[in-house]
From TrEMBL:
Residues 1-385 form the Peptidase A1 domain. One of its GO terms (molecular function) is aspartic-type endopeptidase activity. The keyword Cytoplasm does not apply. This is Peptidase A1 domain-containing protein. GO terms for cellular component: vacuole. SMART domains: SapB (SM00741). It is found in: Vacuole. The chain crosses the membrane at residues 20-42. It comes from the Eukaryota. One of its GO terms (biological process) is proteolysis. It comes from Citrus sinensis (Sweet orange).
Length: 388
């Protein structure tokens, strides 16, 4: 599954080019009008802005989820580089028509399910009552989605080591959870007690090749060469990322063996390498990664968590710029139902995007609900501050 398919996986609509209902158009205009003290009248504002804006209208919706949803559509706020055809995105149109005082829009997502306000998006600035302190800004590294470089990821206070050289990440309010590469999400969900699936291929690799993987890494063999050296993988000459750091390796052909075994080997290499950095013994490391093989993220959806364990779960932290952004268990665990019907779900899910666009982290609503987010298209940067 590529990035576009992932971000749109739940949108099962047949679309045609057209205009949204005038009711929706005018609601959007009123937001811009109010925030920027637009001199146009209500009717003129509608005509002035949206006769120049291309929309897509859903003519049939086959998903019951979307038929019952409390929203009328999705607005894309990415860069023009990923716009379909020659369509000018809504935000670009606002800027080009001089409808905003600053080339900035910002999000506040309210995580309180009992609150009347679910959140706020401000076009043309920020709302100071919805964040604390100052924002930490990082540059946009690739125009398309709002992409930036993510630093180290920590479970508790322990570095996972997977992003020491930087990982690509995007911020996306259309993604409910926080998505990342399977090896790291497996470690996170294992640490918080998430129910996963047992991988026979993973256990096979650990039992038969675990010692050899350890020895090859200790000898100094490059991680991306290990599975090829063992004979579980053979490659075809493309870009390859095994530990979150992009490298170019000599690849020969498609997998020499079963692709699932090859993938399991690559995950095991990531895990062993990370544990080596923490100076663990071979026996302890192989036992640990064998446990990880029992708790791979469910490919069909989220991982279930024992609600009673929340007070003992570790923080999960992300390094952005020069600051560490913590997520507490109460912030990354989602609850549904009440009483005996209450279910707790991990806010982390696996998402593997192949090179050259991946691997990639997606900081969705789980993260944005905790941190007020500023998208600055004028200075090509993204800012995060504690939400209030």
């Amino acid at each position: 599954m590529d990035l576009d398919q992932f971000l749109a996986s739940s949108v099962k609509t047949m679309l045609k080019l057209g205009m949204l209902l005038s009711r929706i158009r005018c609601v959007l205009v009123l937001i811009v009008h109010f925030l920027n003290w637009c001199p146009f009248t209500w009717q003129c504002a509608c005509l002035q802005i949206f006769l120049l804006q291309v929309f897509i209208e859903a003519t049939r919706e086959g998903s019951l989820t979307f038929l019952l949803a409390r929203f009328d559509g999705i607005i894309g706020l990415g860069f023009r580089e990923i716009a379909v055809g020659d369509a000018v995105p809504v935000w670009d149109n606002m800027v080009e028509q001089g409808l905003v005082s600053e080339e900035v829009f910002s999000f506040w997502l309210n995580r309180d399910p009992d609150a009347e306000e679910g959140g706020e998006i401000v076009f043309g600035g920020v709302d100071p009552k919805h964040f604390k302190g100052k924002h930490t800004y990082v540059p946009v590294t690739k125009k398309g989605y709002w992409q930036f470089e993510l630093g180290d990821i920590l479970i508790g206070n322990q570095s996972t080591g997977v992003c020491e050289g930087g990982c690509a990440a995007i911020v996306d309010s259309g993604t409910s959870l926080l998505a990342g590469p399977t090896p790291v999400v497996t470690e996170i969900n294992h640490a918080i007690g998430g129910e996963g699936v047992v991988s026979a291929e993973c256990k096979l690799v650990v039992s038969q090749y675990g010692d050899l993987i350890w020895d090859l890494l200790v000898s100094g063999l490059l991680p991306e060469k290990v599975c090829q050296q063992i004979g579980l993988c053979a490659f075809n000459g493309a870009e390859y990322v095994s530990t979150g750091i992009k490298t170019v390796v000599e690849k020969e052909n498609v997998s020499a063996g079963d692709s699932a075994v090859c993938s399991a080997c690559e995950m095991a290499v990531v895990w062993v390498q990370n544990q080596l950095k923490q100076k663990q013994t071979k026996e302890k490391v192989l036992s640990y990664i064998n446990e990880l093989c029992d708790s791979l993220p469910n490919p069909m959806g989220e991982s279930i968590i024992d609600c009673d364990r929340i007070p003992t779960m570790p923080n999960v932290s992300f390094t952005i710029g020069d600051k560490i952004f913590n997520l507490s268990p109460e912030q990354y665990i989602l609850k549904t139902g009440e009483g005996i019907a209450e279910v707790c779900i991990s806010g982390f899910m696996a998402f593997d995007l192949p090179p050259p666009r991946g691997p990639l982290w997606i900081l969705g609503d789980v993260f944005m609900g905790v941190y007020h987010t500023v998208f600055d298209s004028g200075k090509l940067r993204i800012g995060f501050a504690e939400a209030a």
